[in-house]
Write a structure and sequence with these properties.
Length: 243
């Protein structure tokens, strides 16, 4: 029998959770996700950050080069048609593997298509194990996020800034889009980082408390759902939680 790695620890880690941290570019998704994971690891909780720009960075750039496009593009119609599904699909595959091992994952990114289709609240439809799903949206005004994007000077933002009018069209000034399924919980991105993390902690605890007793995660043949597969839009709840 293999001896325990931590003899003094009797309780196991909390039940795994998948967290989709969504919102427009410049709202601080990555900053918040990094702070969250550092905090959780310091307290002995296994969390993994999976940033789709890092997961798909190398193959996405190479594919765009082969298509004769800007390798730093992450927002044009060409990118969304030819590359986006590869980035997101690879990120979800890695998330599934981590969840199967019993660790939680946080996935910062727009996830707009999946959010609108109501898929983020139903992990199995994304090919993930049946774990609790937290869906949070960081809300920020267009003017504030544009200045943040300028200040950070990231190459992946060049297309956004060069086509800002087209890119920001229909942005709803930082509010989440209409969703066919459950709407996300909204967190104001202008709040101090500590308050944003407290809001995430309440959402995670609420999901874990609402769930049933933990069950063994079985491998399954779930396939990543495609947009348009949800049929008629669901009614929008009037009491979306703002944190």
């Amino acid at each position: 029998m293999t001896p325990p790695l931590f003899p003094g620890r009797t309780a196991g880690p909390p039940a795994p959770v998948v967290m989709f941290l969504t919102g427009p570019a410049g709202c601080g998704k990555t900053t918040l996700a990094e702070a969250w994971v550092r905090h959780q690891i310091c307290h002995g909780h296994p969390w993994t950050l999976l940033d789709k720009d890092l997961v798909g960075g190398l193959h996405g750039q190479r594919l765009l080069e082969l298509l004769g496009a800007d390798p730093h593009d992450r927002d044009s119609p060409l990118f969304k048609k030819e590359v986006r599904h590869l980035d997101y699909g690879a990120t979800l595959q890695l998330a599934a593997a981590q969840l199967q091992l019993g660790g939680s994952v946080i996935l910062p990114g727009p996830w707009t298509q999946e959010l609108v289709e109501g898929l983020l609240a139903d992990p199995v439809r994304l090919g993930l194990p049946p774990v609790p799903s937290v869906v949070a949206w960081l809300s920020i005004s267009d003017a504030t996020r544009r200045q943040r994007i300028i200040d950070r000077g990231h190459p992946l933002d060049e297309w956004k800034l060069a086509h800002w009018e087209f890119y920001s069209k229909g942005s709803r000034n930082g509010e989440p889009p209409p969703c066919r399924g459950p709407v996300p919980d909204v967190i104001a991105a202008e709040l101090p980082l500590a308050q944003q993390m407290q809001a995430l902690a309440r959402l995670v605890e609420g999901k874990r408390s609402a769930g049933s007793a933990p069950v063994a995660l079985q491998k399954h043949g779930g396939q990543r759902a495609r947009a348009g597969g949800w049929g008629q839009p669901a009614a929008q709840p009037a009491d979306r939680q703002r944190l």
